[in-house]
């Protein structure tokens, strides 16, 4: 079993931890920007306005109209 010979300094631990946090931050930022792009496309798309017909037999649309 491999055992480290010396103790890792606090500075090295901090550097490694900050590198890991930086990578996590950049990947999270990429996810958020892609999500914003896709969300804006779906909100501003004409597909939602033209294809607003109820699916199935229309039971869900009748219930929602009555409750409003």
From TrEMBL:
SUPFAM superfamilies: Zn-binding ribosomal proteins
Broad class of the protein's primary localization: plastid
Keywords: Plastid, Ribonucleoprotein, Ribosomal protein
One of the record's GO cellular component terms: chloroplast
UniProt keyword NADP, yes or no: no
Location of the protein in the cell: Plastid, Chloroplast
Top-rank taxon: Eukaryota
Database matches in InterPro entries: Ribosomal_bL32 (IPR002677), Ribosomal_bL32_plant/cyanobact (IPR044958), Ribosomal_zn-bd (IPR011332)
GO molecular function: structural constituent of ribosome
Family: Belongs to the bacterial ribosomal protein bL32 family.
Protein name stated in the entry: Large ribosomal subunit protein bL32c
């Amino acid at each position: 079993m491999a055992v480290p010979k010396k103790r890792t300094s606090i500075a090295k631990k901090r550097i490694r931890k900050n590198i890991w946090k930086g990578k996590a931050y950049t990947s999270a930022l990429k996810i958020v920007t892609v999500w914003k792009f896709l969300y804006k496309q779906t909100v501003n798309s004409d597909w939602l306005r033209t294809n607003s017909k109820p699916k199935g037999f229309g039971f869900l649309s009748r219930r929602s109209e009555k409750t409003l």
